Amino acid sequence: MLTLARQPHPETDLEVKRSHFLARAARTDSEEEARAFIASVRAAHPTARHHCSAFIVSVPGALPIERSSDDGEPSGTAGQPMLEVLRGTGLTNTTVVVTRYFGGTLLGTGGLVRAYSDAAAQGLAAASQVRLATRYLWDVRVPVTDAGRLEADLRAHPDLSVKEMIWGPTHAVVLLATDSPDPAPLAELLASLTQGEAVPEPAGSAVVELPV
């Protein structure tokens, strides 16, 4: 799933006939987070005339939630064009807000659609994207005397990652992450590295951010 990194993203400024269209995007994993972000942008620019917005939030097992707002601009000239831009990026769990400071010149319907579309595109392009992926976690318990060698062997393997080493008096636990929930390939690898002594125990899963 393509989304934005969970970090502050830069605000962009598009000037059209002395009106300024300030765009900012954010990672929002729920409708509540999306609306809270919109409110925070509004609070940051209390004198602006319009804070138009669009967001898409994924819902497991259902269609995503998609919402947009013209916030006082003529109907269909801001929020919906911004939502179309957001859809076109393939991003989800993402909100984009365009704040307009009026410059004194009316832009007309077509001008507003272009301005809000271009501003939203700029704001989204300035944000850092990541891909969310599920990683499956496994505990592997081995004698302390073998743990260092096994850790080195596992770190050299391209299909898994060593997340943590937990050391005890006689045994260590290696926390591994793999792309697949199937334990068989990992069990086969561990058997070859430990003469069949180490076996993977399921330890849950985690969603991680991968660079795009």
Structure write-up:
By secondary structure, this protein is of the alpha+beta class. The protein folds into 2 domains: 2-127, Impact, N-terminal domain (Ribosomal Protein S5, domain 2, 2-Layer Sandwich); 133-211, Alpha-Beta Plaits (2-Layer Sandwich), CATH 3.30.70. The protein has helices at residues 31-44, 79-89, 108-126, 144-155, 184-194, and strands at residues 2-4, 12-16, 19-27, 50-59, 62-69, 94-101, 129-143, 160-167, 171-178, 200-211. A hairpin with a 3-residue loop joins strand 8 (160-167) and strand 9 (171-178). The mean pLDDT is 96. Belongs to the IMPACT family.
Notable features of this structure?
single chain, 212 residues, alpha+beta, Ribosomal Protein S5, domain 2, 2 domains, five-stranded antiparallel sheet, 10 strands, elongated
Strand residues, percent: 35-45%
Indicate the CATH topology of the largest domain: Ribosomal Protein S5, domain 2
Mean pLDDT: 96
Which H/E pattern describes the elements? EEEHEEHEHEHEEHE
Q: In one word, what is the shape?
A: elongated
Query: Under the CATH scheme, which architecture of the largest domain would be assigned?
Result: 2-Layer Sandwich
Number of domains: 2
Distance between the termini: 11 Å
The first-level CATH class of the largest domain is given as Alpha Beta
Can you tell me the residue ranges where pLDDT is under 50 for at least 5 consecutive residues?
none
Provide the structure class.
alpha+beta
Quantity of strands, as a count: 10
Number of helices: 5
Cα Rg: 24 Å
Relative helix content: 25-40%
Protein name: Putative YigZ family protein
GO biological process, one term: regulation of translational initiation
Domain Impact N-terminal: 17-123
Family: Belongs to the IMPACT family.
